[in-house]
Amino acid sequence: MASSSKWTWAQNKLFENALVTYEKDTPDRWQNIAKITGKTVEEVKIHYKKLIDDLNDIEAGKIPMPDYEKHDAKGCTQPDKKN
Question: What CATH number corresponds to the domain at position 34?
Answer without folding.
Answer: 1.10.10.60
